[in-house]
Amino acid sequence: MDDFSIEFLDDGWVKIEMKELQREIDESGVSNIEEFLRKRLERWREVEVNIAVTGDSGAGKSSFINAIRELKDDDQGAAEVKVTECTKVPTAYDHPTNPKIKFWDLPGIGTPNYPDLETYVQRVELEKYHAFLIFTATRFTENDRKLAVKIRAMQKKFFFIRTKIDENVRAESRKRSFDENAMLATIRRDCLENLGDLLSQEEDLFLISNHEPNKWDFVRLTAAILDALTRYQRESMTLSLGKAITRSSTEVFQRKVDVLKGRILIVSAASATAALVPIPGLSFAVDAALILKELSLYRSQLGLPEIGSAEFTRLHLATREKVVKVGLTTTAQLSGFLAPYAAEAAVEEVTRYLPFIGLAVASGMSFGATYYALCRLLGAVEQAALCVLREAAEKTAADFELDID
Known about the structure:
- It is a single chain.
- The chain is α/β, with parallel strands linked by helices.
- The chain is 53% helix and 9% strand.
- The protein has 18 helices and six strands.
- Helix 13 packs parallel to helix 18 and helix 15 (317-325) runs antiparallel to helix 18.
- It is globular, with a radius of gyration of 24 Å.
- The N and C termini lie far apart (53 Å).
């Protein structure tokens, strides 16, 4: 086994999966392990996540809900964007690829139906939300402060978000003395003074533009929301984030890679459940369908373009070759990809690195071959995706220079 695969085994997500799998074996034995593994692989699609989005009218709540879901304002299912308050009751907007994740547009406190905090807490069912985003386009209000205090008492996470930074930049950039960093520092300082002791540091405040999510604090806010969730909620939302957000942040990209690494152990164990006795010489082909399905997930999650698409044809030749290399759809193609590494795989020895599981699940060649194949494939997809990201960043920089000229 090479250093590349051992590095995967030492990853934090993988160790967590090891312990959970061992706990299941200790509690239930191996008779139901196949059902456990199947459910574990699909758990991220079943976890409920409810994110509350609140604030005064015109603060950009609806635009944010559309931006985080990567929808245009006129797309089907998009939140309605209006200057005046149009939210009379809590309204849920499903994530387009995962309906278990919902962003709730909440009415503001102080409206006729929600005149005070007590009425608000009861009518919007504050307990059911897992994280709270409090928006303003100007200054946070006393009602915002009261709501944050209530949320803190519930031991839940809240974030203050100052929106429409793009509009501030455009307005201030007309001045000869314009300094964007100084302007942003002024906005942060004003917000922190406005909020008093509710925030302990500047990092707890987010300055964003819903129309330019690749700038300012939009991606940092996305990461903060993920960190506010439980483990399985975080996994679910991480894998549900779209291509644009994934490509706009190396941190989000790496988070996806880490979650996918954690799945490798479970997929490999699933491949071994049909042969719980460590008999060497099992055919690699018996796991091909499982591996190819997981490979397809890797490609979509890390944002690889479809082979033959317009985006694919615009890539440099070397990058296209990397994308094609992991565009496998058949057992024969998969075997061809892995052939150069067969001698170094030493798949029958992989159980030495899995003391938490042992032979009860890690059944020789079946487990080892699958684990090694997925390590190799995820690494190759990651490298191809990073090449795509670099080209996209270079193109953005070139376009920016042309706009300046």
